[in-house]
């Protein structure tokens, strides 16, 4: 085999091994977080739950950053420390699959927890699986890019609101554009410019033109909260991670729950600003508009998911207790430290 070709194959295999290993580890992490939700949900604000999820999403697709956080050890015990990973030299990235080109390497799968089992796959079979994985990654990314492109074209056909109307809702008209559009599946906010790369716009909110004015204002408040909480950026990380880990059911479950918590966080922020009659109108609007639609990528849609849960939360709204915010923040930081730091040694 040509030396240069073999080097390329080894590099590709090492990258695939790294992402497979990180995918297994983050799937286990997300699985534990999901199991803990009955306990943590009453204590964590939706905004802090999004922070916990998003830390995992960013760590999973920036695998070397994930490894770097392993050097940070604040707590005496961490979830990562319990996994006892096999690490690849010299990068110190996790390696569950064997290294078929390494002289003297064992043909074993090094599972989290120190368990080793024989790997029956040949070098060629593992490379074939790696190529299938890469092909699916490319397919998901192409689909995501085309979906966002269609939404962008659809939004640009709408009528742009004047800057003073945008400013009325606490949004900066220099960085946020709002368009009223016909034929939208749901209202949404996306990252990116509006009319051109030099227009200074960072986010575009697309609203359904048929909405009554009072409901249009509520939807605009909701989408504005997505912007304030940087959700389109978080969702970009989620979408990239899902392209890498399309094979993991636990990642899909975590993706759905992350989107739900984003919507609940924005619902909560809007409800906190409204009077009782406004909150009742918001709940009625959720009943009519939150139809379970999902838009892929960095797009945050108003009616994206779990309408029944959002309606119940809106109907049961109560003022936040002063002590709950700091408790929620501290608990979210502790969970981040427990799940995503420590455990460097293999």
Automatic annotation (TrEMBL):
One Pfam family per UniProt: Peptidase_M56
Signal sequence interval, chain numbering: none
Keyword Transport in record: no
Tagged with keyword Transmembrane helix: yes
Entry keywords, A to Z: Membrane, Transmembrane, Transmembrane helix
Superkingdom of source: Bacteria
Transmembrane segments: 19-40, 52-72, 126-144, 327-345
Stored InterPro entries: Beta-lactam_resp_regulator, Peptidase_M56
CDD domains (alphabetical): M56_BlaR1_MecR1_like
Location of the Peptidase M56 domain: 212-295
Protein name: M56 family metallopeptidase
Record organism: Flintibacter faecis
């Amino acid at each position: 085999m040509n030396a240069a070709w073999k080097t390329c194959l080894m590099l590709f295999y090492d990258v695939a091994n790294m992402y497979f290993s990180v995918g297994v580890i983050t799937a286990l992490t997300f699985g534990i977080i999901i199991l803990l939700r009955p306990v943590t949900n009453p204590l964590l604000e939706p905004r802090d739950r999004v922070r916990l999820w998003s830390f995992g999403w960013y760590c999973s697709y920036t695998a070397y950053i994930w490894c770097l956080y392993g050097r940070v050890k604040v707590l005496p015990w961490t979830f990562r420390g319990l996994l006892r990973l096999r690490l690849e030299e010299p990068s110190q990235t996790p390696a569950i699959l064997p290294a078929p080109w390494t002289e003297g390497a064992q043909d074993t799968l090094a599972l989290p927890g120190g368990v080793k089992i024989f790997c029956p796959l040949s070098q060629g079979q593992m490379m074939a699986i790696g190529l299938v994985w890469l092909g699916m990654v490319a397919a998901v990314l192409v689909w995501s890019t085309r979906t966002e492109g269609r939404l962008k074209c659809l939004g640009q056909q709408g009528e742009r609101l004047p800057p003073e109307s945008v400013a009325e809702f606490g949004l900066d008209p220099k960085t946020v554009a709002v368009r009223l559009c016909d034929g939208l599946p749901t209202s949404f906010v996306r990252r990116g410019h509006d009319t051109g790369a030099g227009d200074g716009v960072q986010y575009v909110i697309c609203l359904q033109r048929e909405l009554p004015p009072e409901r249009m204002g509520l939807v605009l408040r909701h989408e504005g909260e997505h912007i304030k909480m940087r959700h389109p950026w978080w969702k970009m990380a989620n979408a990239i991670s899902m392209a890498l880990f399309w094979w993991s059911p636990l990642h899909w479950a975590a993706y759905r729950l992350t989107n739900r918590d984003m919507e609940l966080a924005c619902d909560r922020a809007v409800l906190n600003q409204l009077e009782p009659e406004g909150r009742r109108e918001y709940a009625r609007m959720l009943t009519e508009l939150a139809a379970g639609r999902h838009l892929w990528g960095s797009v945050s849609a108003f009616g994206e998911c779990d309408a029944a849960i959002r309606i119940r939360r809106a109907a049961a709204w109560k003022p936040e207790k002063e002590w709950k915010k700091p408790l929620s923040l501290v608990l979210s930081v502790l969970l981040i430290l427990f799940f995503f730091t420590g455990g460097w040694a293999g």
